Each structure stands twice: as structure tokens, then as C-alpha cells.
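ok so for the tutorial part 2 we go from a plain amino acid sequence to predicted C-alpha cells. step 1 is just haveing the sequence, like this:
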Amino acid sequence: MHGTLLLAALAATAPITTAFGIGTVVEVAAASLAAGFAYNVFADGQQKDALRAARAAEDAAAADRLDERRARAFVEPREWWREDELAPYDGSDYDGPILLAADGKVFNVWRGRQFYSKGGPYAVMAGRDASRML
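step 2 — the prediction. this is what the C-alpha cells look like for a chain of 134 residues:
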């Protein structure tokens, strides 16, 4: 669009450009527009590549943090749990596991920390047998 307007403006000033010839001026203007467009496309591609690389690095760092939290929240499965053994896993340790027992099964609900840790709506169930509460 802008290139068409520039070429039309150059064509309108033909008497001024007779020393160089209108064809030469139009060719130089068209080459300048093409070079500017090519540079913009190249720069845009470079910027997108840099953003992709930054996003990939952020995703890798987030995955590493999740793996670290998963490792800290891991509890070796057991055949039997007593309620006093569940009590330390009530969500008071931010990176630690949160265990909840229900109907004879023990669940590690660390991913729902916002629900089961202190101050959450289900905090009363964490670190104990919640069978009667459900």
C-alpha cells in the first residue's frame, strides 16, 4: 500500500526528476522499499526466534522446579498407616507432602496444596483419616 503511494508520488514529480530519468528514480525507490521490507521480515523472524528460545528456557526451568517439588513431596508407599503417622503430613511444610486417608487408602494430595494446606477449605482433612468427613 505505502509502496504504491510512493511510486505514484514519484510519477507525479516527473518534471523534477528528468535529470535522472523517471525510470531510475522509480527503480531506486522500489529497491529501497524491497530492502526495507526484507529487513523487517528478517528482524521479525529474529525476534520470534529469540522469544521462542526464551519461552523454551522458561518451560524447561518450570519443568525442573516441578520435578524438584514432586521429589520433595514423595512419600514411600506403605501397606499400613496409623493416624499418628499421617499427622506430620498435614501441609504445614510448604514443599512437603500432604497425606489424606479415606476409606483405608492414603492419598498424597500435594498438588492440591491450595485446598489442603493451612487456611484451605479442606485443611481439616489433611494429615488424618477423613473417611467420616467425606
